Each structure stands twice: as structure tokens, then as C-alpha cells.
Amino acid sequence: MSREGVLVVISGFAGTGKGTVVKGLLDRYEQYALSVSMTTRQPRPGEVNGVSYFFVSKEEFEATIAADGLIEYARYVDNYYGTPKAYVEEQLKAGKDVILEIEIQGALQIKKIYPDAVLIFVMPPSAEELRSRLEGRGTETAEVIEKRMKRAAEEAGFIESYDHIVLNDVVDQCVEQTHAIIEAAHSAPSKQKELIERVRKGLQGK
Amino acid sequence: MSREGVLVVISGFAGTGKGTVVKGLLDRYEQYALSVSMTTRQPRPGEVNGVSYFFVSKEEFEATIAADGLIEYARYVDNYYGTPKAYVEEQLKAGKDVILEIEIQGALQIKKIYPDAVLIFVMPPSAEELRSRLEGRGTETAEVIEKRMKRAAEEAGFIESYDHIVLNDVVDQCVEQTHAIIEAAHSAPSKQKELIERVRKGLQGK
Lengths: 206, 206
What we know:
The structure is a homodimer. Chain A is an alpha/beta fold. Chain A contains 8 helices and 9 strands. Chain A has a 5-stranded parallel β-sheet with strand order 2-7-1-8-9, with helices on both faces. In chain A, strand 5 and strand 6 form a beta hairpin. In chain A, helix 1 (18-28) crosses helix 7 (171-185).
């Protein structure tokens, strides 16, 4: 199968479980490659450099921006987050569907540069459920949880910029729905150039 | 399930087998309703008024245009073809995905009025295969086949206006791919207004 890869952006409020959905896609289907972001924030316990993120200093991050080595970046709660360009483009050429798990700011930047990118927003069933998932993590203070809920309220204003909204109620169903959306994106005209050109030339008797 | 219906436009060159794909969708899934077009052309043997088409006179057709009773119409080879509005809107409200099997001119009109409509173009594997399917029908003269091939060459210029291109090589696969595309369309933000509003209000503490 020599089809071209699709660039997939997955966003959602902190606590929606988008990481679990992404993991589900990567575990079940070989067609996916996860883009590893670069960040200046401190690693959390258990996070591995080069797997969870590329953890770099502020100076290194700014040097990468200057060298045009990021396809998008954003500042969020005093830290930089960005997507290194080289890996994404290599994987797309190799036919992989590349998943970016990024914030709204970055997602909107991506759509400008890659209009074919598929922007998917993972939604919680309700605000109450979102709060209860954040509390259930047990890793964040009440203050941080309030911050995240406030942030979610702000982010909610941008949901309509996404191409697709998926409800993460039952994780398994959410993974399958997300996969189906990405499969459908492979039939966009921009991904079917070869077929279109072949038939068109044949019809013109060339 | 109270989800809102999606308006689906299916087009393709004469002889591509789009009618078979549409029939496959209708036979396999209860969610679909087929819009019956109105036309001034003569019925072919076996065609039933109100099922294949609503067969009307030129005067009746023009009266329907005047009464704003069509969501699109076009003239094609000296005949009018159009889509009666009332049935489509009723079925969408009832939650059905309404399929319009129409020509490119009509499809582009639909997209202007219903930007959420999903435009699907059914492609033959090649121009040779298209010709052989037209010849295989055994119902058309060599002259008509040439006309249809020439028409296909013209229509091929508009393929990129469609949202999705599906290859009709193995019919069964084509039906399933088309169905998956329509399912994915249900996750567009315009079809998820209820969920978005509910979560948004919850986040704002309303």
C-alpha cells in the first residue's frame, strides 16, 4: 500500500483522556506514528526523554525555532511546546499517519501550514465528568485543577475550528471512531491525486 | 439515537456504478433515505414514476422551480433534473442520512446551500474500465457511449470540488468505504452542536 500519510492533530481539555485514545490508536494499528513534541517544561515522574517529550532548555528551544526546525510551537503556562519538523515529514512520506497530540494554539497553526491535516477534538461527556477525571488522577492540587477547568472553559471557544468532535465516554468506541475518521480522510482529493490523474489522462486519450 | 441526518451527494461518470453503490448503502443500513429526483426526460424501460424519478412535463418542472420547490436543478442533454426540497428536509430532521445521486452541476449548487453536505465522487479504476462498463450495459449505441466518454472527460475537471473520492473497483469495498465516510461526517462540529453546547455551559458554571 503506497498511500500517502495523513497528518492528524488530536486535542482536548486536560483530563479528557486524549492520551489514552492516542495510545489506543498506536497499539491497535500499525499505520500510526506519534510525533514527539519538544518542551522546556520539567519531566514528570516516569516521563522519558525522546519518548514522552524531547526535554530541552529554553536556549535550545529558541535555537530550534530560529533554525526553522519546528512546524508549530506555543507557550503554555511559562513553558514552550513545539513539534519538530523533520520526523513528521519523514513519516508522512513513508505512508504513516502522523499523530500530533497538541494544544489548540498549535492545532490552528498546523491547519494553516497543512490544510489537509485532520483536526480532531476529544470531548468529555460533561464538565462534571471532566472535573471528576482530573480529581481522579490524584496527581494535582485543587488549585491546579481549578486552573485546568478555567483553561478548558477558554479552550471551549475554539472547538468549532476542529474538523471532527469525538466523545470520549467509552474509550474503546472513541478509539474506533477516531480511527474511522482518519481512514475517511484518506479519500480526500488531495490524497487521491494519483488515481485522479490516471483516470483524467485516460479520458483525454493520453 | 437522535442524531441529525447528513446530506450526502454521490456523483460519478455515467457507467461508474454509482447506482449500485447507492443501492448497497440503502440495502445494508437503515439510516439512509434516497432522494427521488424530478426530471423531464422520458422513463427508460422498467423505471417507475415516484421511485426511479418523478417524471414530469417541462411546464410542471418550471412551475416547481418558480415555487422554490427544488434545492437544485440542472439541464443536461435537453432535459431538466432537480431535487424536490420538502422530502430532503423532512428526512434530515427525522435523522436520516439523505442520499442525492446527482450530476456535478447540481452537487456544486448543493454545497453552496448546504455547506455541511458531504460530496462523494465515485471513480472507476481507469478510463478503459469505464468504457468497458458502458459497453457491457449493452443498452447504448456506440455514439451515445462516445458522448458519455466525452462528458466524463469534461466532468473530470471538477473532481477536486468533492470532499471524498472513492474507488469503485470491488463494489462491496466501495459501499463500506462510502458508509465509513458518511459516519465520519456525523462528527463534524455542525453535527455535534448539542454536545458542544452542553459541555461549554457546564464549564462556564451555567
